[in-house]
Amino acid sequence: MSTFKKRIVILGAGYGGIFLATNISRYMKEKTGEIILVDKNPYHQLLQEIHLVAAGFRTANDVKIPILELIKEMNIKFIQSAVKQIRPDTNQVILESTKIHYDLLIICLGASTKYFNIKGAEENSLPLRSITDASLIYDRISSIVNSDKKQQQSVVIVGGGATGVSLGGALSDFINEKKKSDSVSVTIIEALPTILSGWDKRLVMKVEEVLLEKGIRIIKNSPVAKVEKNADGSINDIFLSDDDGNSRIHSSLTIWTAGIKGYNVPITPEVEKTKDGKIVLNGFCQTDRYPNIFSIGDIAAVRDDEGKLYPPLAQIAVREAKYLSDLIPKHFIVNEETSEVSGPPTPLSIDKKFEYTINVQLISLGNDDYVGFINNHVISGNLAKLVEEFSQSAYIKTLKSGGRDVMNTSLYGDDTFSHIVSGITFAQFTFVRWLKNIA
């Protein structure tokens, strides 16, 4: 059988893309295959922490990890460029800087803010989808807090999902630290009857309790109808379609976290997409029309056994990446000793489809506040913070080891052995932290 180089191209270095690239690289030998990772930024963004940048509790550099640092000594070529078009008919990706050919393509380009065609929403609000967005919010909230204005000022966050709730808690902490809680308020507006829709109700109750203690106003069951600038352009008027008719709220700063849609990358010929622009996939995270194209993360529309779409969460993106890092070598790498890559030697239909049950829910509610739901119990305080720190540490170590660090990579396994090992690793992590605290 003849051998020749084949190329796996991964678009996007977010949670899913960088995890997949680093974990699959150990299966690829340079002489027979290559992995190309593409991202418009030279760094990986820890997006689960950007709300802390928006509130000044982290710097932009604190939540950036240089991509070249993560892929050091791995068989991964990094290209910093924006993606302009994907051409499945010719197996090409058109970048801003060049064109590249692929044999296997994984699209992990994430999502952008969705404004639901609400009049004035995009023009009169700030989004929170990147470190740049977070820095802009910090500049605005700092200006408000440091202002000499005597009248009451308000920050309004439209969207009570995880991003909006975390941001609200962080901004409230910032305002309270500056001793401006009497003159600057924080409000979260949610269109649905509950914040954190789809999360465990017991966790949601605890989250609301913490937010209310911080002085945050929560308005539920109130879709935004339009957002307008007032006469002098300094304040927004947010009109709500609620039970009281068309209520109006004044806002000195409006931040939009109400929804997302798949990143808009032209694919010609087209693949099937949802109305939100997400790529429709089968149970193997694969497009039906093009068997050599896969997708994971916020841009991917993957359904569970009940037909429900998996939510746009970092832990889902990472689990999908772990799934593909096991699936692709099995079906596309024929000879494990030489890492020769070929077309799928066996049909994917014989393999297990992606499935994942969310057993752990954890959310940041400010500079030092976390609430979680683990093993059917709500946790908060130091324990919740410790779980968050452990998860972050294991994630970074797994990236840097390319999945070879068994103790930390076990966190992403679903078998009994992985659960035991991850439990031991967490115990070790906790013990080390305890020693540092008493030293």
Largest sheet: 5 strands, parallel
Helix content: 25-40%
Strand content: 25-35%
Give the strand order, joined by hyphens, for the main sheet: 5-2-1-9-21
Name given to the CATH architecture of the largest domain: 3-Layer(bba) Sandwich
Total number of helical segments? Answer: 10
What spatial form do the alpha-carbon principal axes imply? globular
Q: Can you tell me the residue ranges where pLDDT is under 50 for at least 5 consecutive residues?
A: none
Q: Helix- and strand-based class?
A: alpha/beta
Write down the domain tally.
3
- The N- to C-terminal Cα distance equals 61 Å
CATH class of the largest domain: Alpha Beta
Return Rg in Å: 23 Å
Q: What is the CATH T-level topology of the largest domain?
A: FAD/NAD(P)-binding domain
Number of strands: 27
Average pLDDT figure: 91
List keywords for this structure.
FAD/NAD(P)-binding domain, five-stranded parallel sheet, 10 helices, alpha/beta, single chain, 439 residues, 3 domains
Structure description:
The strands form nine sheets. A five-stranded parallel beta sheet has the order 5-2-1-9-21, covered by helices on one side. A five-stranded parallel beta sheet has the order 11-18-12-13-14. It has 439 residues and is an alpha/beta fold. The longest helix is centred in the last third of the chain and has 23 residues. Helix 1 packs parallel to helix 7. It folds into three domains: 203 residues, 3-Layer(bba) Sandwich (FAD/NAD(P)-binding domain), CATH 3.50.50; 133 residues, FAD/NAD(P)-binding domain; 72 residues, no CATH class. The protein is 30% helix and 26% strand. Strand 26 and strand 27 form a beta hairpin. It starts with 5 loop residues before the first strand and ends with a helix.
